[in-house]
Amino acid sequence: xxxxxxxxxxxxxxxxxxxxxxxxxxxxxxxxxxxxxxxxxxxxxxxxxxxxxxxxxxxxxxxxxxxxxxxxxxxxxxxxxxxxxxxxxxxxxxxxxxxxxxxxxxxxxxxxxxxxxxxxxxxxxxxxxxxxxxxxxxxxxxxxxxxxxxxxxxxxxxxxxxxxxxxxxxxxxxxxxxxxxxxxxxxxxxxxxxxxxxxxxxxxxxxxxxxxxxxxxxxxxxxxxxxxxxxxx
Amino acid sequence: xxxxxxxxxxxxxxxxxxxxxxxxxxxxxxxxxxxxxxxxxxxxxxxxxxxxxxxxxxxxxxxxxxxxxxxxxxxxxxxxxxxxxxxxxxxxxxxxxxxxxxxxxxxxxxxxxxxxxxxxxxxxxxxxxxxxxxxxxxxxxxxxxxxxxxxxxxxxxxxxxxxxxxxxxxxxxxxxxxxxxxxxxxxxxxxxxxxxxxxxxxxxxxxxxxxxxxxxxxxxxxxxxxxxxxxxx
Lengths: 233, 233
Fold this sequence. Notes:
2 copies of one chain form a homodimer. The first copy, chain A, is an all-alpha fold. Chain A is built from 8 helices and no strands. Chain A has helices at 8-43, 48-94, 96-109, 114-125, 128-139, 147-174, 178-204, 208-232. In chain A, helix 1 (8-43) packs parallel to helix 8, helix 2 (48-94) packs across helix 3 and helix 6 (147-174) runs antiparallel to helix 7. The first copy, chain A, is elongated and about 75 Å long. Chains A and B meet through helix 1, helix 2, helix 3, helix 4 and helix 5 of A and helix 1, helix 2, helix 3, helix 4 and helix 5 of B.
């Protein structure tokens, strides 16, 4: 086992890795979509100035959708949790036998004997808060969401989306010919996508090299498709 | 309790609600970002033809990033699960006492007596597969991912993103004046966002009206920001 939820050091570790995760999510999405959009508009031979405006509009829209969307999703999760919590308290009050049977079913399903199932169920049901907490976590699979985490996470993702989006767009700021700007944008963005994919995979403990290649591939396919479609139109 | 994991009827129910969830996720994102992008470009007084090309490039990029991204994320989750599974089998083999202590800690933390903790731990540890399954699910909090689900989910989200994106863009197809097209786009998109937000909330069991308003708000803020920024440039 690698996690000890009540270890303070580990909580700090989880906090900082959550921030890193937000940054990586926001940045790899921020790199991908504005990159592909700029590639598509270059394919349609749009001027660099139009590409910059479209790109900045996209970054504004995307960062708000991801950031505000993430924040409101966090709030909704909190509401959902509170509703279910209230319902479990009601059910424990009104239908205690049925709820006890469900606790017993849990212990049966993990492989305990009839005797231990009964004892464990009685012990859980002795304390109402403990009983409901158990039901929420292990039967409904709901963890109590941290409302501050949702807001921070939304902010981190939104800002990282902006930071990511600046990379594929910046060549268009300096180079008027959008075909030339696209070349630099492709090289810079694919390198960044690889680096982010690499670290993202390292953090989740899967093969970092193949993770980097996957993320790069998504960006490349998205940009190629946008370029091809815009060129056809 | 509302879920019975081994009930066939309920699995079908979960399956169809997962599809609905994918559709709603893809569609509300597909509505928001192309909508805001088109609004931004209208703010910069771009021609409807440019807005259409940018919008279609964005839809291609966004649907590939969400679809392919979702698919590869599903694959990564599967790898992660398999790595952890292998590690747990190793640890149960090499450090059985430490792993038993962790099972015991779980039973302690949910509130069982010392006696029942010991009995339950012995019963779990009798069978290696049962023991590892328990550790995976209740200590690491990992569910075995369904690889087919990941692919289907990616496809549903990608297609829904495209379907969603067509709504804010279609007025620009019929109306050359982008300011006029924007007006229809705003009305059509905000109505659709409200409807999707409403159903999304209904599905998760939170207040549907406030959910609809939230989703509409995200779209409106993103579009207004993109419009404002593009107008300034």
